[in-house]
Amino acid sequence: MPSCRQGGQTITISTCVFDAYGTLFDVSAAARRAATEPEFAALSGVWPALAEDWRRKQLEYSWLRAVTGDHVDFWQVTQDGLDWALAAAGLTGDTALRQRLLDLYRELDTYPEVPAMLAALKSGGRQVAILSNGAPEMLADAVASAGIGDRLDAVLSVEAVGVFKPSARVYDLVGARLGCARKAVLFVSSNGWDACAAAGYGFATAWVNRAGAPPDRLGGAPDHVLDDLSGIPALAGL
Q: 18, 128, 193, 224: least buried by Cβ within 10 Å?
């Protein structure tokens, strides 16, 4: 029987749900790749800071828009975050660089272990899905570029409910689309706040803590903390 630990109890897992950006897809890949291209040599010394600023503002803007109810899709939030990061790096006027970074964001690299990990889950009979802040078109491009569409049963976007994570209305999409009970879901995210919120919602959770960050001080806590995604099949009972 597929099983996982949640709150000290053994539970049966039928469905594995993944955050997309930062979890399956490496959000630093766009800036890292652009920095290797001769025409964007200005990025060579600053791309790590730009990538970090871009991601941080992207998330901050999503949270603020969720609180205020001033919703736009994640592609707009992604552009707004990039504009802030470019300004912080003194690169505001480089429109070619801005466009190149946005184009690369539509085809982010997955982390190396992702294809085999997803294939193992599917071959083991688990439902596999993405649940993301990403706009549907963004997610479709990323999944197609990575070649992982055949390993997914569903790609769920917050645009179906018009609010970003960690709203419970977003996590509700999993049961509504996949027909599974909360306790049968293993939810996986690289964002500590996302894993905490999903745990509070009632999912079994795994936090992929690649950076070795301290845990967030929030109401829920992830059931498992991993260095990468290679251990997910074992948590799903495979």
A: 193
